[in-house]
Amino acid sequence: MARRPLKIGIMLSTTGPYATVGRAMLAGAQLAIDEVNDGGECPFELQPRIVNPGGQLASYLAIARSMLAEEGILHVLGCYTSSSRKEVLPLFEKHDGLLWYPSHYEGFETSDNVIYTGAAPNQHVIPLARHLLAHHGASAFLVGSNYIWGWENNRIMRELLHGEGGRVLGERYLPVGETDLGDIVEQIVEARPAFVFNTLIGTSSYAFLRELRAAATALGIDQPRVMPVASCSLAEPELAEIGRESADGHLSSSVYFASIDTPANRRFVAAWRRRFPELGTTSADAETAYIAIHFLGRALRLAGEPGLDAVREAAAGLSLVAPQGRVTIDAENRHCHMRPRIGRSTAEGEFELIYAAPEPVRPDPYLVWQDGASVPGRSPWPGLRVVS
Amino acid sequence: MKQPVIQNFRGARALVVHGMDANGEALARTLRRLGLFVGRFDPGAGGSIPAELAQGCDIIFYDADQGIGALFGGDPLPDVPSVAVIGTEAPSRLARVVRQRSASYLLKPIRSSGVFTALFIAFNEFEVRRAEARRRETLEARVQSRRFVVKAILRLMEREGLSEEGAFKELRKEGMRRRITVEALCREIIAAEEAAVARDGIPTA
């Protein structure tokens, strides 16, 4: 069977404040594209059109418009920040495109034009909050980049803390890319929280972790032990950016760590090392992009055509054994069933696993099924014809 | 006064009064995803909304192009938040939305984004309105009782030779002892006195 070429968009920021993440995602996607094309099962030959928005919101918009409206591309793997995703979503709706979004995010969205292959909030911040409350205490300092990722995760953390009688000692936000963190670090070592919840991203996060470690060490505080920093985004390539002296002892909640010991992950890591020796180790961001492309390949094969409706329908309920373990696209909300894990970073730039959920957890992007305040729950309307 | 914000609508019953078309489907599907139970009624099908649907719901979504006033078979509309699903942005349709006091709205075509916002605002705005209505009722009752309070104070001043302030303090103390409001106490006192007047004639000092 002759394979038809299919152009797919890759819209990842490989320069700018979160370039490290973008480069890992791009590499993960490239690895999967080669595997799909070599596998011979997909009726299409994936031809990536790779464009770098450089972390600029306006560029995301221009690139998405050009891909969807001018080049006729239907499938785009792209975006890391939610602000960039929300910026381009109306274009995907208008042009019947499908965005394969390869990142954990804060939830509160179920667009019909997105397949979400990263963790939803019930798979990252909630298990992390429970772990921190159980093992480190109930006083926290919240610091984040000033956009929706930080706002929502901090809200969830704050509510869980208050529910347990805990306290938020401080909450501070900085613009994406800001690296002047002296004031905040000073406030934190003074406040001495039981843990710091960090939703800073990219360069801000690396600078923060270095400065906090330096300030604590200067005061004789064993920061990783008495005041650990926990986040839902810190990944292996970022540990290299932070530098050896400050890279260890940070907690990260993620569905993937390079240290996961499964045959599928060993294969993934080996293929990665052969192809991208310069990029160091694999990471959640690389794996999320990698499985997004594999899901795209399988959905195309099932659908037999690249149209939005057919591929979306084919993708619903798809399941594969990913490097992290079994991953299934939820038919209802098109996020993925995955196993939450918590790792602790080492100076060598890896994470040692300290917690893993026993099995994949259903994604709950609106946190509907978590404990907490809700309108009085009722039973379904019984026995009515008109009720669906 | 700050009220807690309701953020989770799991288990609430949503009555969707809308045609069985793509918009109605998208709305019902998204509401179910958010953990609500959905009951549907097609206003184009004729008849009125069954009582068990009308009485049992916690929120109503209705097609503003069609309206819902006539669909409850003459019964008053359920006292729950409503969300207008607006197709035509024309004054005649929008006037309905205003009269219905819908706390929130959605514009067609219905997309999955927007439904959570409409639900969130409708439930919470309705709660605020309900709290405001309760407060208004209390204030109105207090205004209506003013006549009795004034009378009761005057009586006490006359009989006990108290100052106005002293008389009010006495009434408040008595009200607290009996765990009723000053207004209710004064109503009682004046009602008892009026009954006595009706029975025995005007009391002589």
Topology:
The complex is a heterodimer of chains A (388) and B (205).
Chain A: E1 4-11, H1 19-39, E2 44-51, H2 57-70, E3 75-78, H3 82-94, E4 98-101, E5 114-116, H4 125-135, E6 139-145, H5 148-163, E7 167-174, H6 182-191, E8 195-199, H7 202-218, H8 223-226, E9 229-231, H9 236-242, E10 251-254, H10 263-275, H11 284-303, H12 308-315, E11 319-322, E12 325-329, E13 336-337, E14 341-345, E15 351-356
Parallel strand pairs in A: 1-2, 1-3, 3-4, 4-5, 6-7, 6-8, 8-9, 9-10
Antiparallel strand pairs in A: 10-14, 11-12, 12-13, 14-15
Helix pairs in contact in A: 1-11, 2-3, 4-5, 6-7, 7-9, 11-12
Chain B: E1 13-17, H1 22-33, E2 37-41, H2 51-56, E3 59-63, E4 82-86, H3 91-100, E5 104-107, H4 115-160, H5 164-178, H6 182-200
Parallel strand pairs in B: 1-2, 1-3, 3-4, 4-5
Helix pairs in contact in B: 4-5, 4-6, 5-6
Question: Which properties best describe this structure?
Answer:
heterodimer, A: 388 residues, alpha/beta, 7-stranded mixed β-sheet, 12 helices, disordered C terminus, B: 205 residues, 5-stranded parallel β-sheet
